Amino acid sequence: MEAMLSTAPDHIADLAGFVTASPTSYHAAATMAQRLRAVGFEELDPRRPFRGVTGKRFIQRDGAVVAWVAPEELAEDAGFRIVGTHTDSPSFKVKPGDPIRSGGWTQVGVEVYGGPLLNSWLDRDLGIAGRIVTRSGESHLVRSGPIARIPQLAIHLDRGANDALKLDKQQHMQPVVAVDLKRPVMEHLAELAGIPAADIAFHDLYLFDTQRPAVIGAEEEFFASGRLDNLSSTHAGLTALESTKVGTDVAVLVAFDHEEVGSDTTTGAGGPILQDVLERIAAGYGLGLDATRALLARSSCISADSGHLVHPNYVGHHDPKNHPQPNGGPLLKINANQRYATDARGAAIWLAACEQAGVPTQPFVSNNSIPCGSTIGPITATRLGITTVDVGIGLLSMHSARELCGVQDAWFLARALEAYYSSAA
């Protein structure tokens, strides 16, 4: 294990670069596409018939990617081996319209996206990133430097702030960008994107924390970063697929968008994107409806999303006996009410992958009095009817602007996913 762990620092450095390059889901998808092309994956246009489905291929649609490695011929007992993740994180989406003027300051109007820990975004150096769509329909990625800040009220003006800080999403979470704004923010972003501001039709823009990821701790065993939920899983799945060789099964990575707001979109897990691709792959092998359904019945999915480490200052919020630790291995996420899709059959698939990879894993269950969140796992299982298991690395401060994980856990997850893909090779 010690010899194997020698590559963990390289993995965490690569994850840091991936997060830095991916301030929004659109950037994450573009970064994934660039890396996939670099290792020989062919991009297909989902708007056109697929010109073959075997080998290494992928599609990119907005902030989502589906990539796969498929054999030339499909064996009778083959199936899909799917890793599902998501590319979005809680944030603040820029509203359309003119800047806000208040108290002599110029602010940008934003709308809360998902469920961020609001207070974690206060007094941070924020940028604006996302995509701009021109009147011709072309999309342009853009990201600024640190140009915004959501300021907290000084303690002298709110003596009870340390007793009970209450933040109104509309009144208190609008960022300042200037005092006397010399030119509109959209004009600045258009210049960064290399387009005339007059050509802008609309935009999907978000705030992001500009602080770079870092390895921290007295023993350098922690990794602090924004968007670990869920770029940690997306990166692990990507690195696993990059090294996957053609085997008996079809290895698939799907990175959905919009998980943080319910997944019911064209590129979310509740939408058709994964099912469409799987059915088109099956059609590429000449399979009809019955054979395609049988292929899906032989398939499995690892839904990889972050879970919770036990919090040392709030131990009572966790299950009394289940205390996942950093660097103890990725979590096997279990919930009786199917907020996670894990069952015994899916758990066995995950445990076999961890054993093959030689990495540890930890069970995760919630305190009965504090319901857990959910993932793309139950949605994928419901849409496709395939065995699905929920896993992911443990985090402190999930949905904070800056989350924390164990350095080794991110590496462990990638190795387990690589073993899952390769076990049918």
UniProtKB/TrEMBL annotation:
Enzyme class: hydrolase
Cofactor: Zn(2+)
Signal peptide limits: none
Domain of life (superkingdom): Bacteria
Keywords recorded for this protein, A-Z: Aminopeptidase, Hydrolase, Metal-binding, Metalloprotease, Protease, Zinc
SUPFAM superfamilies attached to this UniProt entry: Aminopeptidase/glucanase lid domain (SSF101821), Zn-dependent exopeptidases (SSF53187)
EC code: 3.4.11.-
Record GO terms (molecular function): aminopeptidase activity
Pfam families per the UniProt record, alphabetical: Peptidase_M18
CDD domains (UniProt xref): M18_DAP
Stated family: Belongs to the peptidase M18 family.
PANTHER family given in the database record: ASPARTYL AMINOPEPTIDASE (PTHR28570:SF3)
Protein name: M18 family aminopeptidase
